[in-house]
Structure to design on (302 residues):
């Protein structure tokens, strides 16, 4: 579907993209993640045909931008972090305008209004929409031409949790249909985990690692962690068989869970046998931010 081979893009002394190879299958949803300056946006802009690689080649359904620009424009849909609309026209008129660029009918406009849950807002002026509604409209515009490749650049940045999940719901419907591939850039770990089949991690213009979230966590030996606090002073030696970090003054600690269910049973058995009083406990799953810190020394949002 999408083939990226040996792609490089330099800006003076900055190696924005430095020899990237990446294949994306039909219907596959891929998250492209990395700290600011990792090269994500430059790579996506080359896939979109906005930037031209200094070296290497990008093809979509085996077609390159150099020889098939008009045809490829009809195949892709793009939604950016912020989209400017003509505020004095309404939602339906906006969609009709973009539908006319592709020769799409009113039926397609009605389908998009239903998909993005804006049918009741069809006659509402764009400048009266909330932030989440405007972003759903931007997504609807990206989908108006039935694209086989959808490129979303941080589509939910600045949205409240409910608005963000409305976008996720739309994208998950598309994912079930398997009619389009998706390249998603985001700083929200939960978004990548919720939507994407594969996660590609970039830093300093290179791909560091790729795979499903579970594959990435397992391959880097990242485990779930049990955090706990006791009511009164407790002998940490009771838990010496665990891989543990203990804070004597706080009467608290954390245990790395190698085999979660078994380790929790062992932990609770000690609590019961020693008649210890737990103040609180929490299990934290290893996540993408843990992986980022391991690979880059930085959090995802830095």
């Amino acid at each position: 579907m999408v083939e990226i081979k040996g792609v490089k893009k330099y800006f003076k002394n900055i190696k924005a993209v430095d020899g990237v190879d990446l294949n994306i299958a039909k219907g596959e949803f891929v998250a492209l993640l990395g700290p600011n300056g990792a090269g994500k946006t430059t790579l996506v802009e080359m896939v979109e045909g906005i930037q031209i690689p200094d070296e290497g080649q990008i093809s979509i359904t085996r077609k390159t931008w150099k020889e098939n620009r008009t045809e490829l424009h009809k195949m892709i849909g793009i939604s950016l972090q912020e989209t400017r609309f003509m505020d004095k026209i309404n939602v339906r008129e906006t969609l009709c305008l973009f539908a006319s660029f592709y020769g799409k009918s009113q039926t397609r406009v009605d389908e998009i209004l239903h998909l993005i849950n804006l049918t009741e807002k069809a006659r509402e002026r764009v400048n009266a929409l909330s932030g989440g509604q405007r972003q759903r409209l931007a997504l609807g515009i990206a989908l108006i031409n039935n694209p086989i490749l959808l490129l979303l650049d941080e589509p939910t940045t600045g949205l409240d949790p409910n608005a963000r999940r409305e976008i996720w719901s739309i994208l998950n419907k598309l994912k079930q249909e398997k009619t389009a591939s998706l390249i998603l850039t985001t700083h929200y770990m939960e978004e990548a985990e919720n939507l994407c089949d594969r996660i590609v991690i970039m830093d300093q213009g290179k791909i560091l690692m790729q795979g499903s979230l579970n594959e990435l966590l397992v391959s880097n030996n990242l485990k779930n962690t049990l955090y706990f606090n006791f009511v009164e002073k407790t002998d940490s030696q009771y838990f010496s068989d665990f891989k543990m970090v203990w804070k004597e003054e706080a009467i608290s600690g954390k245990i790395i869970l190698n085999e979660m269910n078994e380790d929790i049973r062992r932990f609770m058995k000690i609590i019961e046998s020693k008649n210890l009083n737990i103040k609180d406990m929490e299990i934290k799953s290893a996540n993408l931010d843990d992986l980022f810190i391991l690979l880059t020394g930085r959090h995802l949002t830095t």
